[in-house]
Amino acid sequence: EKASASAIQEGGAGAPPGSIAILYEDKDYKGNVLNIKGDVSDLGAVNFKATSSFRINNGYVATLYEHKDFKGNCFSDVISRPDLSKIEFESGTTMNDAVSSVKVSNFKGAVMYASKDFQGLSSYYEADDNKFDDDCGGNKVSSIRVASGYRAILFKDVDFNGVSGDANCNDNNIRCVDNDIANLESIGFNDEPSSIKIVKKSP
Hints:
3-stranded antiparallel beta sheet, mainly beta, about 0% helix
């Protein structure tokens, strides 16, 4: 979708028809807002330089980036977040007032979180990824959300455990996930995944 953002509005105005997400200058969805209808490569260009909370509409995923042009530390989610200061990077800094670009899209894959209960740094996967090192959430995975109608296949090793073709969900080094899991310890796979395949399930 073509990148677009509406004019800044005062005080918690709701998203107009067609908007996907709303960025707020203050935590708890307060302060000036920016309605997001598509990817925005430079929030500074639309004079929105401070983001402390955001809302995302159902069925969509947002990825917030520290730098413009979708670069730097990043964080993905499919639920609204009232306080971005709770999203902390390994450097000790947080996502609060550190958002410079944003991507939004239909949720058609999985979001993986570094901490249990869908907390911590996170990455969105809409396609297969053979190695996690350069992704938003790094290589730690403790919880996962999976879009309806999709399956996430988690592999213990990079390059899909060296397996080509269909994955064997009964393999001890593979987990096939069809639903949200708040703690991967429950399936014996906490901090184990190193690569992922996204499969659209048949109707």
